[in-house]
Every structure is written in C-alpha cells, then in structure tokens.
TrEMBL record:
This is Ribosome-associated translation inhibitor RaiA. Signal peptide: none annotated. Pfam families: Ribosomal_S30AE (PF02482). It comes from Winogradskyella ouciana. Coiled coil: none annotated.
Amino acid sequence: MTVNFQYVNTDVSEALSTYIQERLDKLANKYEFLISAQVYIKHNDKNHDAGKICNIELSLPGPRLFATSNEHTYELAVNQTISDLKRQLEKRKEIYKVY
C-alpha cells in the first residue's frame, strides 16, 4: 500500500511519518483490499486545547474511507483516526465476505 504524507502548517517529522507508516502497514496486512492512503497532518493555532489534526483517506474498491481527529498530540490524533478507520473497515469487510 502506498502512503502519501502532507504536512500543513507544521514541520515534516520523519519519526511521525514512520509511526503512521507502521500503523497503516498493520491495517494493510489485515485488510488486503487497501490500495493507498493520503495522510494530512495539520496544526491549528487557534485551538489551544487541541490543535493537532490528523486526516487519513483510504483508497479501496468502492467509496473511499475518511477519518479525522483533533487531539493534544499528533500520536493521539493518529491513534484516534486509525481507530475510526478500523471501525469503517470492519463494516466494509462484511460486504466483501464470500458466503
């Protein structure tokens, strides 16, 4: 699965990119129908409580899946976003089951 990263209003972080890549590789191993992922890491200065935003869009057969979260740290935002995507993937996997 190919993963494209875009950092908006924040510095590029190799450690964060590696962390996200590892988490998405686990998803790709479990759900073999994933094609690619677009990851957007954003920083919002106006929101002092959170402001660390992670958007992930997964490309797969059928409609794309999208999840976003806004947390205190980027790691928490990534974990929450991937958790939301797992829930959506479980629903989508039911469609692809062969009876």
